[in-house]
Amino acid sequence: MKITRQKHAKRNISFYKYNFNFREPYQILVDGTFCQAALKNKIQIKEQMPKYFMGEVQLCTTNCVLKELEALGKELYGAKIILQRFKVRNCPHYKSPVSASQCLQSMIDGHNPHHYFVATQDQELTAFIKRTPGVPLIFIIQNTIVLDKPSSASVAHIQALQAGQLVTIQQQQSIDTLKQEQGLVKSVSRGKKRKRKGGPNPLSCLKKKKKATPALQPKPGEKKKRSRHRRHKSGAPTLQQSDNQNVEV
After folding, report:
1. Which ranges carry the UTP23 sensor motif region domain (predicted)?
2. Where are the beta strands (DSSP E) in the chain?
3. Strand, coil or helix: what is 2?
4. HSE-CB of 212 using CA atoms within 13 angstroms
5. What does the pLDDT average to over 124-140?
6. CA gap 139, 124 in Å, rounded
7. What per-residue confidence (pLDDT) applies to 242?
8. Cys bridge to 62: 91, 150, 172, 218, which one at CB 3.0-4.6 A?
9. Can you tell me the distance from the alpha carbon of 87 to that of 60, in angstroms, rounded to the nearest whole number?
């Protein structure tokens, strides 16, 4: 059984080694649940991990994991002692610690750029790992350490790369450097923004209103002349009609 487990482990490690560029020493993030399970099953993590991986490993944890074990009290004191022997990796929650599950999720987010193996018994963290491509999962079952087979997300990611549907991180970086060397990438200046050419100003299209000519003001000492407009009444007799009336009389 031991030989069979090591064969499965070697095959799974090779998958991550050739497809996701994992290299020795393999970095293994360990949380409190894994240490507690190892303590109950009398598993020496420091001794058995290198034998199982058949290579050099680095066991590590984060401050958030240690803080969580401190808050949980004496029941997990043994797991805390085990974790304190491992290297502590810097996490972005130094000032405000979060739960161990959230912290380790942030460490492997973005397709696991630091190539971590994650050793945990936490169900929430396990579900997140299986959804994230390129993250190997380690757990304890039946008193033995097991490296889980590549998740469906990891297999689908590799198949998409082989089909040419995706670009690896290394390929994208090389493409960006080539674009910069060829001058195809325009550097964005932080100066004044250029005004875009738009249509004509709608206010300029309106017809100009004619200015009203100001009334002539009289010179000082001169009176205004009144302009009288005579209106002819429709019923008033004309001069010819009045002359004719005088002749008849």
Report:
1. 192-210
2. 26-30, 57-62, 87-89, 116-119, 137-141, 144-147
3. helix
4. 3
5. 96
6. 13
7. 47
8. 91
9. 4
Q: Provide the token pair at 144.
A: 């033995």
19: tokens are 């497809």
- How far is residue 4 from each of residues 7, 49, 114, 196, 230, measured CA to CA in Å? 5, 16, 29, 68, 128
Whole-model pTM: value is 0.66
d(CA 229, CA 85): 116
Helices (H) and strands (E) in the chain, counts: 10, 6
Sequence-distant contacts of 157-166: CB under 8 A, at least 24 apart: 157/111, 157/133, 158/19
Q: What is the pLDDT of residue 219?
A: 56
Angle between helices 152-162 and 123-131 (to 10 degrees): 10
pLDDT above 80 (res 204): no
User: DSSP states of 119-150 as a string?
Assistant: E---HHHHHHHHHSTT--EEEEETTEEEEPPP
pLDDT at 56: 95
SS3 content of the chain, % helix, strand, coil (to 5): 45, 10, 45
Query: What is the structure's pLDDT at 189?
Result: 44
pLDDT tens column, 155-187: 999 998 888 755 555 555 565 676 676 676 654
Helix axes 2-19, 152-162, angle to 10 degrees: 40
CA distance 165 to 170: 15
Lowest mean pLDDT among 48-52, 145-149, 209-213: 209-213
Are the beta carbons of 24 and 56 closer than 8 angstroms? yes
